[in-house]
Amino acid sequence: MNNLRKQFPILANNPDLIYLDNAATTLKPGVVLDKMMEYYTQYGANIHRGIYPMSERATEEYERGREKVAGFIGANMASELVFTRGTTESLNLVADGWARRNLKAGDEVVVEEIGHHANLLPWQRLALEMGLVLKYVPIGDGVESLVTAKTRMVAMTAMSNVLGQKVEVGEVVAKIKRANPKVVVVVDGAQAVGHGKVNVVESGADFWAFSGHKMYGPTGIGGLWARTERWKEMEPLMLGGGAVREVSLEGYRLLDGPQGFEAGTPPIAEAIGLGAAADFVESVGRERIELEEERLAGYAYEKLVNMRGLKVLGKEGGRIVSLSVEGVHPHDLADYLGKYNICVRAGHHCAMPLHTKLGLEASLRISFGLYNSEEEVDRLVEKLDEVIKLFQNG
Hints:
By secondary structure, the chain is of the alpha/beta class.
C-alpha cells in the first residue's frame, strides 16, 4: 500500500517519518482535510436553523456525513447515529443517559480487565453512586462467563488497545444473550471501526461507541450508535439550543432523533470530514486494510518475539504489538526511537488495571496503519535492538 502514502500530507511533507502510533490516532488523508476546508471556505455557516442557501448546504453536508458514517458501520438508518466528541463521550452518554435511568441498586454490570479507562471509569462511578455490582472479566476469559440472571449490562471491547486482542463481537454477544436475553451490551469499538468490516446491527449489540480520529478521520468527533428502542429510553448529557422542539418557563420538549442529543453548535466540519473518511476507507477497501495492517503486525511480532531481553505482550493477532524490555523503561525506548523519526507510544495506554495485572508500570506499543511497510518495521527493529543493547550494556 506504499502508493497510498502520498495521499497523506503529513507523510508527503515528512518522507522519513515512520508513524507507528495508529492506535492513538491515525493520520489524515488529503481528501478528508480538503472536505473540511471546503466547508470553511465555501459554505461555513451554522446548520439546521438557517434558511439561506449557505446554511442549507451546510446542513445538507452535515447530515450527508451522518448518512455516510451510519451506512459505513451498518446502521439501519442514519437516525440511529448521534455524533459525539468520540468514544469516551459516547460511553459516558450510555452510562449517564441510559444506565442511570434504567439500572437499580444490586444490578450487575460486567466489564473487562483489558478495557480502556473510557469503558471502566463511567461504570465505576455509577456503581458507587447507584449501588451497582461491578464484575471484572479476567484476561483471557469470555465476558459471557460472568453473566447471571442479575446482569443488566455488559461493557465489552472489540479490540484491546494494548494486547491487540481482536474479538468476534457477534459471537460474543450471541453467547451473552443466550446466557441472559435481557442483558444490554455496549461495545467500545474505537480500535475496530475503520480497520475492518463492522456491522453494528448484525453484531447483536445495543450500543457501539467509536472515534473518528482512529479511522483516518478528524479529531474531536466520533459517534454513538444505538438501537432505536434504546434511544427512546435515554436522556442526553447536555441540554440547550438546537436540541429543543419547544421551551417555556414551565419546561421543554426535545427534538426527536439525533438532534435531541446534539445540543449547541456541533463539530460541523469534522462531521463532514468524517463522512469523507468513511468514503476514503471504503475506496481503499476495509478487508484490504485489515489484512495489510494485521500482516504487518504479524511481521513485527515474528521479528520481536525472540529478541533477547524483550517480552511481547499478548498473542499474535490484530494490528497492535505491545512489549516490555527488562531493565529499560518504555519512555526511554520511545524517546530514543523518536530521535530517528520513529513514532511509537509508551505508557499505560489508558489501561492501568491491565498493566497492573501484567506486573508492568508501562509498555511500548507499536500500532499499524494502511500506510506502513515492512521496511519501516525493519528500521524499528534495528533501532530497538540498538537501544536495548545500549541500555543493557551501559
